[in-house]
Design brief:
Strand content: 35-45%
Number of helices: 3
CATH topology: Alpha-Beta Plaits
Distance between the termini: 30 Å
Largest sheet: 4 strands, antiparallel
Strand order of the largest sheet: 2-3-1-4
Oligomer: single chain
Number of strands: 4
CATH class: Alpha Beta
């Protein structure tokens, strides 16, 4: 089973309820595809490096998950279809990346 990390940016015009709804939609899609979600984080409203769709800010989210087969393909199709998503990037995590992410999660849980 491969480990993946997806970061996506939602449009800043959404309410808190709408952003939660969008994130829950993608998490449900992963669970329905029999993927295991290891971690999900909301990084909040951040300034973009360059304007996207005439917007200079966006809500950043991270989802780390394990899956096989077409899990990533299905997720990316839904991310492309959803007009609330401005950009996304999915990366397959190698051993070092996975270990770093695990250490980062432990560090974040201690500070929270």
């Amino acid at each position: 089973m491969n480990h993946y990390e997806t970061v996506f940016i939602l449009t800043p015009v959404l309410s808190e309820k709408q952003t939660k709804e969008a994130v829950d939609k993608f998490k449900k899609l992963l669970k329905d595809s029999s993927a295991k979600i290891n971690n999900n984080e909301s990084w909040g409203l951040k300034k973009l490096a360059y304007p996207i769709q005439k917007k200079s800010t966006g809500f950043y989210f991270l989802i780390e998950f394990q899956g096989e087969g077409d899990v990533v393909k299905n997720l990316e199709v839904e991310l492309k279809r959803d007009e609330r998503v401005m950009r996304f990037l999915t990366m397959r995590m190698d051993k070092d990346h996975f270990e770093y992410a695990a250490k980062r999660r432990v560090k974040l849980s201690k500070t929270a």
